[in-house]
Specification:
ten-stranded mixed beta sheet; four-stranded antiparallel beta sheet; alpha+beta; Nucleoside Triphosphate Pyrophosphohydrolase
């Protein structure tokens, strides 16, 4: 009998599972999350799906593409997935790589098309539709596009969860055409677009780690020396990531640096300037096409629970907790979060699934009742998620006794609070170890002078 993992790699099974997941999401929409106090910003992204035809089951070009707009969404989904070329096709997701912009928190990141809500937008979904049209020139209101459902809205925070930035609202759209849409990339926003197979996103072999330089946040405070001190002590932060292998990519030729400039100006840099540029380099540069495409952080958080709805239902298990590169720091983080990670893992396993190959209304959303009294989590907001984290939730506020949360949100519950404590412990440990080392070095130096 073929394993579940190998079954998931088969293109023939994914369309059927995707059909069930999309139908379930449409029938069980996620509730609206209002803005937290003193945070007015809202943003939306579009998770755009399509099915790429298989070579041996190519749709006949003589058959016109018909999509009855008067039919319900469920009827349109049933009609689309009943086609032979769709049943044997390969579902894909559209990602963008953001253009490099100074001061942009998400510069050069792999993301979903989207942006902040304007006052003229009728609702959050309208924002996603408008941003897709502006950024990649794709009209999501045409007859060959089905708006399916929303994914959990979440409060995006910074400063380790203490500062709410915005409420992020993801929406799912399905393209029903067998041909690739013509995209028009906005040079100021998008460096490239990439269609990626769901099979690749589900593959354990493409799981990897993204290293992020958090010292960049000190560049506007203490300058180079503050960045150097932080980077030398704490190192880089490691986030779970997926290496993307696109089936189709489109580069924006209007982006500066599309054709590399003469590197003679780099030769004139001094050795110190070259070392500084290398040591404190940006990880995400949209002009560097030699770097692999990595899906991580907030966008991976949006995709994580959605991918876990699909067989083999292991997308959350493949995810790794954020940590740091120094070995002693990693040890401290591991020790301080050990019990929390074990407890949260038990909560996730307690969700259970009656069937590992079918997706229904109970297994798709991975619901679990939020217990504010459990393990001192009364102050935990199930909707908050760090800009590099992956927590997701349904409701904002602490009066959410009936709120549901999701697998990744459960895993991260309380983790960033422990991570903050781990940093303080690590700094104290390094200072103490450095002081002891300096004391012994001074005694050794005095002993040498006496000789």
């Amino acid at each position: 009998m073929a394993s579940i993992t190998s079954q998931a790699a088969s293109p023939g099974l994914l369309p059927e599972s995707l059909h069930e997941v999309l139908a379930d999401l449409h029938q069980h929409p996620y509730p609206h999350v209002p803005n937290p106090p003193e945070c007015r910003r809202r943003a939306s992204v579009a998770l755009i799906l399509r099915v790429r035809p298989d070579y041996h089951h190519w749709p006949e070009s003589s058959i016109p593409e018909v999509d009855d707009q008067s039919a319900s969404v469920i009827q349109r989904l049933d009609s689309f997935f009943s086609q032979s070329w769709v049943k044997h096709g390969d579902p894909e997701v559209l990602f963008i790589k953001r253009a490099s912009r100074k001061g942009d928190r998400w510069t050069g990141h792999v993301a979903l098309p989207g942006g902040k809500r304007d006052p003229d937008d009728a609702d959050d979904k309208a924002t996603a539709i408008r941003e897709a049209a502006e950024e990649i020139g794709l009209d999501l209101t045409t007859n060959n596009c089905i708006y399916v459902a929303n994914l959990p809205e979440r409060v995006v925070t910074a400063s380790w969860g203490s500062v709410p930035l915005m409420v992020l609202c993801p929406f799912i759209f399905l393209l029903t055409s067998a041909s690739s849409p013509v995209l028009k990339l906005q040079p100021a926003e998008v460096a490239s677009t990439h269609w990626v197979s769901l099979r690749a996103l589900l593959s354990p072999s493409l799981r990897t780690i993204e290293h992020v330089d958090l010292s960049e946040r000190y560049s506007s405070r203490g300058g180079f020396l503050a960045r150097l001190l932080y980077r030398s002590m704490v190192g880089l932060m490691q986030f779970s990531a997926i290496r993307l292998i696109p089936t189709e990519s489109l580069q924006c030729p209007s982006v500066p640096g599309f054709i590399p400039d003469d590197s003679s100006n780099k030769k004139s840099l001094s050795p110190l300037q070259k070392w500084k540029a290398w040591y404190l380099s940006h990880q995400a540069d949209s002009n560097d096409r030699s770097r692999p495409l990595l899906l991580w952080g907030l966008t991976l958080g949006i995709l994580a629970d959605f991918l876990d709805m699909l067989p083999p239902h292991n997308a959350v298990k493949l995810w790794k907790y954020p940590t740091f590169t120094p070995p002693d720091m990693r040890l401290i983080v591991s020790l301080l979060t050990y019990r929390l990670r074990k407890r949260n893992a038990l909560r996730v396993r307690a969700l259970g699934r009656p069937n590992e190959t079918a997706v229904d209304s109970q297994t798709a959303a991975l619901p679990v009742t939020h217990d504010e009294s459990a393990d001192g989590d009364a102050d935990h907001d199930p909707n908050e998620v760090g800009i590099g984290g992956m927590g997701v939730g349904r409701y904002y506020g602490k009066d959410s006794a009936k709120a549901d949360t999701h697998a990744v949100g459960i895993m991260l519950r309380g983790y960033y609070d422990r991570l903050r404590v781990a940093i303080y412990v690590f700094i104290a440990w390094r200072l103490a170890a450095g002081s002891i080392a300096a004391l012994y070095a001074w005694k050794w130096f005095r002993w040498l002078r006496r000789r």
